[in-house]
Design a protein that fits this description.
The protein has about 270 residues and is an alpha+beta fold. Helices cover about 50% and strands about 15% of the residues.
Length: about 270
């Protein structure tokens, strides 16, 4: 071996064995999102789809907590008054009665908090492609619906405590007799409003015929196939497609899904391609 080969051999680093722990492992596939439509299928109409499901923030227990504190305060007051009476005679009877009052108020406060917890666990606010549904009830179940088309405006508020822990309040202004539907202690109220606006826009497209109009235009303006066709055949196919599209647009106009101005505008676009 020559001196140059020896020097080259010394410069080449030795191959290190690949450790099994350093080998990259394929990323785990995240589980598919839960299909909430199956869970709330009994609340949905045909073709209705769930957009968002929300539960109120856990700080809603502040409302139940104040009643518990009030009940506990009354019980402590009765307990303190009971200590002022002696053990015998009429005073002893009143002392025992006041001591029992303490335990009664304590049990009432704990039962109220427990009941409020059960109500919070089952209460949900659901946004679908047609409605806003409030559902809940521990013994007697209930659902309250607000149709998306009836919602005229939404007001979102962020109390100082809500900005810290992440909840807000939203008022749904409607055109019915109730006028306003208020949702308090709502996590990510801005996200709830955004999902509601998206669902309302999609609902207006379906009801007003806008989606059908978009499908007609999209079908007419679809790209031609890659294989070239003879010019005469291509013009004939285009004329047939335009004729079919005009017939569909005329039918939509007669049914009141689109206006005469929209019909004339789309008719001009279709005829310009001939």
């Amino acid at each position: 071996m020559t001196a140059g080969q020896t020097w080259q051999t010394l410069r080449e680093p030795a191959e290190e064995p690949v450790s099994e722990t350093t080998q990259s492992t394929p990323a785990e596939t995240p589980p598919p999102p839960e299909d909430l439509s199956d869970r709330y299928a009994s609340l949905l109409a045909s073709g209705e789809r769930i957009v968002l499901v929300r539960q109120r923030h856990w700080l809603t227990f502040l409302e139940a907590g104040r009643w518990f504190v009030l009940s506990l305060g009354c019980g402590i007051l009765l307990l303190a008054l009971g200590q002022q009476f002696g053990d015998g005679g009429v005073s002893g009877f009143f002392g025992t009665l006041l001591n029992w009052g303490f335990w009664i108020f304590l049990v009432i406060g704990l039962a109220g908090v427990g009941w409020y917890f059960l109500v919070w666990r089952v209460e949900r606010y659901i946004v679908t492609t047609r409605r806003v549904i409030e559902t809940g009830g521990v013994i007697n179940k209930y659902t309250r619906d607000t149709t998306l088309s009836m919602i005229t405006d939404m007001l979102v508020g962020h109390p100082w405590l809500g900005r810290i822990v992440g909840y807000g309040e939203i008022d749904l202004l409607t055109g019915n007799e109730q006028g306003t539907s208020k949702i308090r202690f709502l996590p990510d109220a801005d996200g709830f409003k955004k999902a509601l606006l998206d669902a309302k826009y999609e609902h207006e497209l379906d009801v007003g015929g806008g989606r059908a109009l978009q499908e007609v235009v999209a079908a007419t303006t679809a790209p031609a196939p890659a294989a070239p066709a003879p010019a005469a055949t291509s013009r004939m196919q285009t004329a047939e497609e335009v004729d079919a599209s005009l017939s569909r647009l005329a039918d939509m106009r007669d049914r009141g899904l689109i206006t005469q101005a929209e019909f004339d505008e789309k008719k001009k676009e279709l005829l310009d391609r001939l």
